[in-house]
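Today's session is about reading a structure prediction critically. Students often jump straight to the picture, but the first step is always the sequence itself: look for stretches that repeat, for charged clusters, for runs of hydrophobic residues. Only then move on to the predicted structure, which in these notes is written as discrete structure tokens rather than atom positions. Here is the chain we will use throughout the hour.
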Amino acid sequence: MRIRFFQNRVQLFLLFLMSLVLFSCTKKAMPPQTRIVMNTVCSVNAYFDGTDALYSEIFSRLFDIETVFSATISTSELSEINRCAGEKGVLASDEMIYVLDVALKIARLTNGAFNPALNPLISLWGVNTDSAHVPSSEEMYAVFPLVDFSDVLIDGKTVFLAKKGMSLNLGGIVKGYAADCVVEILKAHAVKKAVVDLGGNISVYGEKANGEKWTVGVKNPFDKNAPPLVRLSVFETSVVTSGAYQRFFKKDGALYHHIIDAKTGFPAKTGLASTTVIAPLSIVADGLSTAAFVLGEERTLALKDDFEKSFGIAIDFVFIRDDMSVSFSDGIEDAVAVMKKDR
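Below is the predicted structure for this chain, in token form.
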């Protein structure tokens, strides 16, 4: 009896040790994590694969991207390029060259509707700053010569802004690049599924249960507290929206938003309240969402084939017009659901 009792005690003890080992080897998933990066609320949900180590790596990468591409941090690589405008070229990092190459490619394809050299005009308007105002014609004419993207010269790894007073602003594309970087980290860690939200730049990664599509909402541009006006059903991809509702100020009853048309010097007016781009590369979706807002619906769709051929990916568009009507590119009817339009 004593031997049997001892054997039972040993078995129980071994089971207890095994449970401890199994418990210690099981990584505990953390809830979605959110930080303020690039002046934006950035959230990542890696579901059951979300660990402290994974989220730390992701947000560390995002902060690193900010230190390279910020137009307001004086020590950033972008600020150094801007300071040397008209004087000398700056040896740039590989990621700066990559982002600038994509930005300039979109600028050429859209004839400047997206323009990485627009910063002198952006600064002049000062939208979302304490100095926001409607510039005079004289002020705008003075900076027009400084916003020609063809004066952004890349020679190998050297970036040179040809005219003194020029400056780059990559805010319209760098969040897309950052989202792509986060997705690469998720892949490297074999994360099964995740949602990345960098201030409205949404990337859905991996597969939902049973191969279901992801549902991504497009905000009602007329009421920030309303439910999404459009819901998209998509597989792994990026969904990026630009709109007049995101940053603006009012003067004498008129609303002036942050998406500037380089040709007029004023906020773009094309009858659109927002433009959404669906594409597997978030950097492309980000740049094209701004370009589409400036181009307008008809001109954007006329260029759709050119965009797809140039980047070698499928690209689709959803437009919410000023009258709250919704339209979208051909072939995605089954992916788009328009909600009740309460204004």
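Discussion point for the tutorial: The CA atoms of residues 51 and 243 lie 34 Å apart.
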